[in-house]
């Protein structure tokens, strides 16, 4: 009776396991599909079918008499070996880019050894003469166990595949940081607190260290189906989409995934369909504050070009150019230096079609037929006659020319994973849908793939630094981007300038949302507010140095030191000599905002609009090819 029950349970387990696997594969395929990740879609389908066939082959194989030697048995053994090896190789090819070169090679080596071992088990060990029954049983046991373990491992890998792949594309703690020192709202507000609102909703009862944090622990496990309905008729497109992902996934999504969707979802992301900058928009950035910012960056770029030996062609790349104001001011400011201007090929890396159009307009671009043919169009900025092109990612910018890269307020828009210390160790903060259909934070009940990045980040920090922290943010995309930048600079020569607000060390809990110049709840009406996080400059330095021995990292220094050393004081004085009273007022305010610290002392306007200086809150770092020597401002 008991053995019958056990038998029926054993029959049932594979069915349950397959239902579970099928649901997860479907949600992963859906997710990969909505992100246009067709390679992932094909990969999951292949592995899913492969696992199914492997199961069938294993069952048929174990139903054969142990000592039988027939073509059918040989075929089954070959099929099992082939399916196992090809799936394992598939996983390695898919996820090797997540690892360093050494890690990827090690992974390949493990798989090669594993597959060879399997070949040995099936075709040599298992094929020994059946003289000894006892050793025959042992051999059967080995091949059986090896294959079962591998199949189970592959199932688990398949379940994690989506999250791992999402991390790879694209491709870290004391007190809470106050948001007043982050991305600039257009004015300070004495009536509203500069602290970001508390976004967490529920009580955390997981150990003493979270006394001030309110996050619920997701006890349903990551892959359990949600019990609540997530549909709300008044939900925006993006909210429906986010809830759809959570629903199909059958569990919460990481903060990074939420941030990425909110900012850059191709249909409804914050940046995608509108101009979010300036007083009419949601926040203001340095190039929008004053023309002097772009002009000073122009001075730095030109000095680096000189140090590079004045190459006749150079790629000038801007990552996330917003309205294109920085580049326009840079071109205007340097337009008199003919050799420099004639060497430039401008590449704008921008994901938003709306902002691309705005950049096209602000750079006064015209599309003209190329000289060599009728198909290709060239786009020229009429400000200086410089060719301009647009790309969705840095990898798409043609290589082979010396390159100068500018990343102003770009890194802060890259998605971060958040971790919280709990009694059971570091847990990832995730976003789920609550019973009332609003979003809420939960803690992952088990380890998540992003933990790898946390471990990687902690490797670069001292144990004491980490011991002090209860929360850590890590930004894998920042590390990946820095790798790409360092490799490009190493192979093509040149340098990169990174300007952003952040810390020269691990960042604790800095993610914030700004709508219409006010800090708002991160989870409130996603897509209608900017999300940004402190930049971890130390991790940029480590990843650049790790990526190439040919590059050297300078800084970070404060924006005030940087602009001061480039001569912004002389520039403001020169401009003040020839302007109206109104322009003079705006120049003074702009200058203060760029280099000052705290509230402007001379301000006579309304109290709630007193400008806050960005001079010490923004940091500047340079990554340059060692051949170029030390760039100006960092000497
Ligand atoms: N540098 C500009 C704008 C900063 S806001 C300024 O200082 O005014 C961030 C910019 O990066 C926007 O233009 C946004 O559309 C772009 N962006 C954000 N994430 C991106 C991504 N993943 N790929 C390309 N562009 C991105």
Automatic annotation (TrEMBL):
Domain of life where this protein originates: Eukaryota
Regions crossing the membrane? 38-54, 75-92, 98-125
Which UniProt keywords are given for this protein, alphabetically ordered?
Membrane, Methyltransferase, Mitochondrion, Transferase, Transmembrane, Transmembrane helix
- Which Pfam families does the entry link to? DUF6490, Methyltransf_28
Question: Which intervals carry biased composition (Low complexity)?
Answer: 178-193
Key word Nucleus present: no
Which Gene3D superfamilies does the protein's record reference?
A: 3.40.50.12710
Stretch list, region Disordered: 178-211
Recorded catalytic reaction(s): these are:
L-arginyl-[protein] + 2 S-adenosyl-L-methionine = N(omega),N(omega)'-dimethyl-L-arginyl-[protein] + 2 S-adenosyl-L-homocysteine + 2 H(+)
Where it sits in the cell: the answer is: Mitochondrion
The cross-references to SUPFAM superfamilies, in alphabetical order and at most eight, read: S-adenosyl-L-methionine-dependent methyltransferases (SSF53335)
What EC designation does it have? Answer: 2.1.1.320
**What protein family is recorded?**
Belongs to the NDUFAF7 family.
Protein name in the entry: type II protein arginine methyltransferase
